[in-house]
Write a structure and sequence with these properties.
This protein is mainly α and about 280 residues long. It has a domain at about 65-230: MetI-like fold, CATH 1.10.3720.10. It has 11 helices and no strands. Helix 1 crosses helix 11 (about 235-275) and helix 7 runs antiparallel to helix 8 (about 180-205). The mean pLDDT is about 90.
Length: about 280
């Protein structure tokens, strides 16, 4: 067996420490959430049970866990759909140079480098001073789009930079209109990338805290509710909530990846059938 250099073991140890630093807190919370009824917020554990998960579904003395979860879910879906639609439109528009394209691009990307709390403050002030009312579905929705749209736009730029316009030309040669070309040619080809944009949009919105802090109004989203619970909840029920929300995030990611695999399989099968037809 070939002897591996010392650098291999050093890099492996660094990577292992990185994984421990990244996932250690989440694993710790998951373990502590399975404590018995007498359990506390720290080790050692006092028994093993599902007691604190059961408590999540009981009437809570503080907070609005399930209401905040529903708000985060609806807001995440709103942000996801808007991010996908606007990213497609922007990606198509930026395929051709137009006046002000560079300035517009810089303005969109600038929101990534502006501190999130300043974006939240600015959007909140704009809505309140304009008499529009600060609410999670309006000002919160707008502030989160400043975070998700740049990522969607960058993904679409990368996609359309590699997109072969010969597919569109072939469709037009067959008499397809611009809408038919978009619907039956462009969108099916870029569908896997759109799933990635949708996943970015939903997950970035679902766990966003800073840009929602001053724009959610009187009703908290789930990250804000969890933050509020850390100041007045002293039982492992908050760990149980963290475990469930983490599991929910993994389920969402798995669903998107499953959809991606399904689309790729359909595209492969369609290509194979077309080849046999030729």
């Amino acid at each position: 067996m070939e002897k591996r250099p010392l650098s291999f073991y050093v890099l492996s140890a660094i990577f292992a420490l990185f994984l421990l630093f990244l996932y250690g807190p989440t694993l710790t919370i998951g373990i502590l959430s399975f404590q018995g009824p007498q359990g506390g917020l720290t080790f050692p554990m006092r028994g093993v049970s599902l007691h604190w998960f059961d408590q999540l579904f009981q009437q809570q003395a503080v907070g609005d866990i399930w209401g905040s979860f529903r708000r985060s879910l609806v807001l995440g879906l709103m942000v996801m759909v808007t991010t996908v639609v606007v990213s497609i439109m922007a990606g198509l528009a930026f395929r051709k140079r137009f006046a002000g394209a560079g300035v517009l691009f810089q303005l969109v990307i600038a929101s990534l480098v502006i501190p999130s709390i300043l974006v939240s403050l600015g959007v909140g002030l704009m809505f309140s001073q304009g008499g529009l009312g600060v609410h999670w579905s309006t000002s919160g929705f707008g502030s989160q789009l400043t975070w998700t749209l740049p990522f969607g736009l960058l993904i679409m730029f990368a996609v359309f930079n590699r997109f072969d316009p010969a597919f569109e030309e072939a469709a037009r040669d067959q008499g397809a209109s611009a809408w038919q070309t978009l619907r039956h040619v462009v969108l099916p080809i870029i569908a896997p990338s759109l799933i990635g944009v949708a996943l970015f949009g939903f997950t970035l919105s679902y766990d966003e805290f800073a840009r929602t802090l001053l724009t959610a109004g009187s009703y908290n989203t789930l990250p804000l509710e969890i933050y509020g619970m850390t100041t007045n909840v002293t039982t492992p029920v908050i760990f149980a909530l963290g475990t469930l929300t983490t599991m929910f995030s993994f389920v969402i990611v798995a669903l998107f990846l499953g959809l991606l695999k399904l689309l790729q399989a359909r595209q492969t099968r369609a290509g194979s059938d077309a080849g046999k037809g030729v």
